[in-house]
Amino acid sequence: MSLLHFALARPEGVPPFPEGWGKPPSPVQHPGIVSVLYSGVGTYYYRCAPGEGSGWTIVGTRTAEWVVPSHTVELDPEVELLSMEEAISTLAADATRFKQDFETLSPSLHAQFAFQPTAEWCRYQMIRDQESPVYVASPPKFWGARIQHGSEIHYIVWTYRPSNDPAPKVIMVHLRATSETFAILFKAVILVVQSEKYQLIEAWNMDSELEGAIGETGGRLYERTGQLPALKWYGTEKEVDWVGNNK
Q1: Given pLDDT bands bounded at 50, 70 and 90, which one contains residue 181?
Q2: What is 193-223 written as a DSSP string?
Q3: What is the pLDDT of residues 6-39, one digit of tens each?
Q4: In the predicted model, is pLDDT for residue 80 greater than 90?
Q5: How confident is the model over 98-113, as a mean pLDDT?
Q6: Whole-angstrom Cα distance, residue 187 to residue 73?
Q7: Model confidence over 85-95: pLDDT tens digits?
Q8: CA-to-CA distance for 149 and 179, rounded, in angstroms?
Q9: Where is the LYC1 C-terminal domain (predicted)?
Q10: Distance CA 47, CA 96 (A)
C-alpha cells in the first residue's frame, strides 16, 4: 500500500522513492493531489506511508442511524419513488448544482476538496452487492425518492446492504433536502425499506443543517467503526476538509 502513493500522487507530493524499495511503480496517467480509501481495519492504513510521514488518515465517521419502525407509514402524494435508473439520472442531473454549491462555500482556513457525484459512481454503489443471494432472489424495485420543492428537485438516493452484520440495511448514497423535505422523503425511505424487510437505515456525514431532522425522524448520531473513509493529501496545506464525504 505504501507503493501506491508513488503511483497516485503528483511527484512533488511525495518524498523521493526509498532506494531499498526496489523499482518504483509506474504513475497513473493523471496523478492527483489527494487519494482516498475506505478502511475495514481501523487505522491500519495510516501506517502505510510513502517512506516518511503518514499514510491515509481517518476522517468523517459521523453516522446517522434509524431502526426501521413497524408502524404503517403513508407516502406523501407528491413524492415519486424511483427505479435504479431514475435514481441515477436524478443524481446525475444534480451534479452541476453540487459543483455550484462547492464553489460558493464560505471561506475556510483549511483547503477544501470534493468529488463531484457522477452516474457511474452512483451505479457502482448500487450494484456492488448484486451477487448477494438476497438480491438474486428478490431484486429491490426502488432506489430513491424525489419531490418538487419550488424550482428544485429534492431527493434521496440509496443503496442496499443485505449483510447481517449487524443487520440488513439501506444506506443513503446522496441527497438534496431541507429539514422539511427530508422528513417527507424519509417517510418514502421507511416505506420502501419496510417492504424490502430491511432493518436499519444509515447515512454518513449529513449536513449539519439536517442534524435536527435526524432526531425528529427518530434517528441517532454516532461515530462508526467500520467502512471508515480515509484520505492522504499530497498538497502543501496542513489542514484539509473533504466536502461531501457522504458515501
Answers
A1: very high
A2: HHHHT--EEEEES--GGGHHHHHHTT-EEEE
A3: 999 999 999 999 999 999 999 999 999 999 999 9
A4: yes
A5: 90
A6: 6
A7: 999 999 999 98
A8: 12
A9: 70-247
A10: 37
Residue 84, helix vs strand vs coil: helix
Cell of 37: 480509501
Residue 129 has pLDDT above 90, yes or no: no
Strand partners, 202: 65, 171
Residue 247's pLDDT band (boundaries 50, 70, 90)?
Answer: confident
- Alpha carbon distance 22, 51 (integer Å): 13
**Helices and strands counted in the chain (H then E):** 7, 12
Q: How far apart are CA 122 and CA 118, in angstroms?
A: 6
Report strand pairing: 144-149 vs 152-161.
antiparallel
* Residue 187 near residue 76, CB atoms below 8 Å: yes
- The three-point CA angle 61-63-66 to 5° equals 165
Number of Cβ within a 10 Å radius of residue 124: 12
Let me know if 245 is exposed, middle or buried by CB neighbors in 10 A (0-12, 13-18, 19+): middle
* Contact residues for 190 (Cβ-Cβ < 8 A; gap 6+): 66, 68, 69, 73, 201
> In which residue are the cell numbers 441515477 written?
88
On the question of pLDDT at 136 being above 80, the answer is: no
